[in-house]
Specification:
two-stranded antiparallel sheet; mainly alpha; flat; 5 helices; 45% helix; 2 domains
């Protein structure tokens, strides 16, 4: 953790500093953070850092840096070599399977979409299936009977399939650690405060649930 102000002993995350809650100066509101509290860059809530603390930090930094280097070397051999030999995969993936699985799927699903699949799942030519499973929203407007004619050359079911695949991809991107900025639901006001946009948050949660629903529904159709 680093510090936003040189004269402060309070730690901050990234480039923001927590504002103490009004009812307790020892508490911090995680959704109320700002880079500076005043226009001149001063902070109304800072705690002066003692000289002895600065000295301790200066002396301990190289020590912890060396420990981190040796820790990384140890972890490499422990997980990337020995554990991988035993379990055939990096067991650290199991610490957060949703992220690991998402990051495995993203490049493959992206390629699947960009390579333009040659076919369309047969269920998308079944109007009853489309209506019963709330798939019509991936078609262009109101459903038409000719779209579900097996002998038709209409591309509407194919376009719907591409839209469905894109919805799946959005969900996996949200569940990975590589697209945090794209799916952020935090707003920054004129004071630099970070606040949750509840409407955007709910929109993203709904998007995620829909993508996973589609993935489960069409899991057996992800081939070309």
């Amino acid at each position: 953790m680093s510090r936003l102000c040189d004269n402060c002993s309070r730690s901050m995350f990234n480039k923001t500093c927590g504002i103490p809650a009004e009812y307790n100066n020892d508490m911090f509101l995680w959704k109320k953070q700002r880079e500076v509290l005043n226009e001149d860059g001063t902070c109304d809530f800072y705690t002066n850092e003692r000289m002895i603390d600065k000295i301790k930090d200066y002396l301990s930094t190289p020590y912890y840096r060396i420990l981190r280097i040796f820790g990384n070397i140890r972890d490499f051999f422990k997980y990337s070599v020995f554990k991988r030999i035993k379990y055939k995969f990096d067991i650290r993936d199991a610490w957060d399977l949703s992220t690991a699985i998402s990051e495995f799927i993203i490049p493959r699903l992206t390629y699947f979409i960009n390579s333009k699949p040659m076919g369309t799942p047969g269920v998308l030519l079944d109007r009853k299936f489309v209506e019963d499973n709330d798939i019509s929203k991936y078609f262009s407007g109101e459903l038409k009977d000719e779209w579900f004619d097996n002998n038709s050359d209409n591309y509407e079911p194919y376009n719907a399939w591409l839209n469905i695949l894109s919805a799946m991809l959005n969900s996996f991107e949200y569940n990975s650690d590589k697209f945090n900025a794209k799916y952020s639901y935090m707003d920054i006001n004129g004071y630099g405060e970070h606040e949750i946009n509840t409407d955007k948050y709910q929109e993203i949660i709904d998007m995620d649930a829909e993508g996973l629903r589609l993935f489960a529904l069409f899991f057996g159709n992800l081939w070309d």
